[in-house]
Specification:
By secondary structure, this protein is α+β, with helices and mostly antiparallel strands. The chain is 34% helix and 24% strand. The strands form four sheets. The protein has a six-stranded mixed sheet with strand order 2-1-7-8-9-10, with helices on both faces. The chain has a four-stranded antiparallel sheet with strand order 6-5-12-11, with no helix packed on it. Strands 3-4 form a two-stranded antiparallel sheet. The chain starts with a helix and ends with a helix.
C-alpha cells in the first residue's frame, strides 16, 4: 500500500482515502499509507456510529463513514464570482477559476462507485454539464476496494451495487486476512491502472488468495444488515402518495436534511450572495441545498411543500422512484449513511417495507370488497 500511495504521488496525484479523525473514519488527503485506518472497524445502527478496535490489521474492514466522494467532486461550497466597485463607481466582476488537484481516490466502495457514476449522469450527462464537477471528475483515478465487512445498515445487495465491483475503475483491490497473512488481490481496470500496478512489488495471485477474496465478498453479501422489499420500488412509491405511513414518519422527522448531506447522490444546490461591510465587494457562492428546507420549494405566495410530511415524501419518492424517470436509475445505492446519520434513527429500508406492507393490505382489502 505504501508503494501504491507513493506511485500515485509521484504522478502528481492528490491521494484521498479513509483515515481516523475526530472519532470517525473520514476521507482526507493521504501522504502515506500509514494514515489508513489499520485495525479499525465501526459499529453502525440507526442514529448511531462508533469506532471499534479490530483484532486484525485490516485497512478497509469498515463501512461507509459520514462523508462520500461527492465532498471532493461536488463540493459543499464553491465561489462562482466576485465583484469589486472602484471609487469612481466602476464595477469589475471576476469569475472564480477552479483549479482542482489531480485526484486519486483510494478505497472507493462499490456502492460509492455506483454513486459517482450516478452523479456523472446527473451533472455531466445532460445538455448542460456542470463545469465545476466536470473539471474535478475528469481524470480522477479510482481505486475500488471490494467490501468484505458490511455494516448493520448496509443494503447494497438490494440495490444491485455491491459488495463486489460493479462498474469501471482504474484499480480494484480485495483485502484478504487469513492464516496465510494480510494481502491484497489487485487487478487493473484501465491502462493507467495497469501502469501503476506494474510499478508495485508483488506476485501473481495464487488460487488460495483468489478463492479467499471471492469467499470474503460473497460472505459480505450474505451478511447485509438491511434489505429493501422485493418489489418494484418505482411503482410502489408512485402508488403510495396518500399512504398513512407518511404521517407516521412526519411525526419523527426533524426535516434537518442530514440524510441529504451524507447521501452520495444528492446534488441540489442554491446560491448565496454576500457583501463586505463597505458594500464595495460582493461574492456569489454555490452551496448545497436540501429539499427539506421550507424555502426549497418556494414560489410566489409561499412554499409548495409546507409540511414535513410532504418534504420527506418528496425526498423518498424522488430517491427511490422518480429518479428513474429523470436519470434512468435509482438514486439510492444502499450505503446506509442516511440511516446512521439521522438524529432520530429514521430508516429508509424500514419506511419502504412499511409502505409495501400498507400497499399490500390495501390491495387485499380491495380484493375482499370485490369478492362481496
Amino acid at each position: 500500500m505504501e508503494e501504491l500511495v507513493g506511485a500515485l504521488i509521484r504522478r502528481g496525484r492528490t491521494v484521498v482515502g479513509p483515515t481516523v479523525r475526530d472519532d470517525a473514519i473520514v476521507l482526507a488527503e493521504l501522504t502515506s499509507a500509514a494514515e489508513l485506518p489499520y485495525g479499525w472497524g465501526v459499529e453502525l445502527e440507526a442514529g448511531r456510529y462508533r469506532l471499534r478496535r479490530r483484532a486484525d490489521r485490516m485497512a478497509f474492514a469498515h463501512s461507509a463513514g459520514p462523508q462520500s466522494w461527492k465532498t471532493f467532486l461536488h463540493p459543499e461550497r464553491a465561489r462562482q464570482w466576485s465583484a469589486d466597485r472602484a471609487p469612481d463607481g466602476t464595477v469589475t466582476v471576476t469569475e472564480e477559476p477552479d483549479r482542482p488537484p489531480s485526484y486519486a481516490f483510494l478505497g472507493v466502495r462499490p456502492c460509492d462507485l455506483r454513486a459517482i457514476s450516478t452523479q456523472d449522469r446527473v451533472l455531466m450527462g445532460g445538455r448542460y454539464a456542470d463545469p465545476l464537477y466536470r473539471g474535478r471528475r475528469t481524470g480522477t483515478f479510482l481505486i475500488v476496494v471490494e467490501c468484505v465487512e458490511p455494516g448493520a445498515t448496509c443494503f447494497c445487495v438490494s440495490m444491485g451495487t455491491g459488495p463486489g465491483l460493479s462498474g469501471d475503475c482504474d484499480l480494484v483491490l480485495t483485502e484478504v486476512h487469513d492464516e496465510h497473512g494480510h494481502r491484497f488481490w489487485a487487478r487493473a481496470g484501465s491502462e493507467a491502472g495497469t501502469e501503476v500496478l506494474a510499478e508495485l512489488s508483488g506476485r501473481p495471485a495464487d488460487g488460495a488468495t483468489v478463492t479467499a477474496a471471492g469467499d470474503a465478498v460473497a460472505g459480505a453479501a450474505d451478511r447485509m444488515g438491511r434489505t429493501m422489499p422485493q418489489t418494484d420500488l418505482r411503482n410502489l412509491l408512485r402508488g403510495s402518495m396518500d399512504a398513512e405511513r407518511w404521517n407516521d414518519v412526519a411525526a419523527r422527522c426533524l426535516t434537518c436534511g442530514n440524510c441529504t448531506m451524507v447521501c452520495p447522490t444528492c446534488y441540489c444546490t442554491t446560491t448565496e450572495d454576500v457583501t463586505d461591510l463597505t458594500g464595495d465587494h460582493a461574492e456569489r457562492w454555490r452551496v448545497w441545498d436540501v429539499c427539506y428546507d421550507l424555502d426549497f420549494s418556494y414560489v410566489h405566495g409561499g412554499p409548495v411543500r409546507s409540511s414535513g410530511r410532504s418534504r420527506y415524501r418528496q425526498w423518498l419518492t424522488h430517491k427511490l422512484g422518480t429518479w428513474h424517470d429523470q436519470f434512468g436509475s435509482s438514486g439510492c445505492v444502499g450505503c446506509g449513511r442516511c440511516i446512521v446519520w439521522c438524529p432520530v434513527g429514521i430508516d429508509i429500508t424500514e419506511e419502504a417495507h412499511a409502505l409495501h406492507a400498507e400497499a399490500g393490505a390495501e390491495e387485499e382489502r380491495g380484493g375482499q370488497a370485490g369478492e362481496r
